Amino acid sequence: MTKFERLTHQGFQRGFSLIEVLVALVILVIGLIGIFNLHIVAKRGSFESFQQTQASYYANDIINRMKLNRTQLANYSGEYTGALSKPNKECDVAVGAVSLCSSVETQAWDLYQWEQSIIGAAETVGGQNVGGLDSPTACIDIDGTTVTVAVAWRGIREGAGTTYSGNECGEDLGTRRRIFVVSTVII
């Protein structure tokens, strides 16, 4: 083998090592991009799951409040978006109320407090509610003793199956609408 052939052969070996390193880096970068995308998808899924859990909690909360105030059951019916004004009388002993409330006052306080929970009024950052559902609308329908509570909110992205027949609650949310519906009987 001549001196030229040996130098050329060594040059190819060095070049081949550099190509191997570049290929390994490309494979590593592609793998890291996949991991980052998986992380983003997992965070979105976690948020969607959290929102659904919250909606379930809020629906059951108002049902329990209605069970404790059966005489005003029909007056709980309506659509709620966070627009109720605070009642004159606070009827929640959990926050230190010492006055007795009528069933009508209790119903007004229940709806106000429940609506404030749904919009996340207890947790704010920079004057914006951050503790509740994203753009919530809640609907309560009462037919005799049958109570249907629907809690709708806006999901992160458009999803399949967002057209829910039979319940128009939160339809203005469009294709990103998510909804949780509970139907029960209160005797």
Automatic annotation (TrEMBL):
Source taxon at top rank: Bacteria
Keyword Lipid metabolism: no
Regions that span the bilayer: 21-42
UniProt entry tagged with the keyword Zinc: no
Protein keywords: Membrane, Transmembrane, Transmembrane helix
Name under which the protein is recorded: Type IV pilin modification protein PilV
Organism in which the protein naturally occurs: Shewanella oneidensis (strain ATCC 700550 / JCM 31522 / CIP 106686 / LMG 19005 / NCIMB 14063 / MR-1)
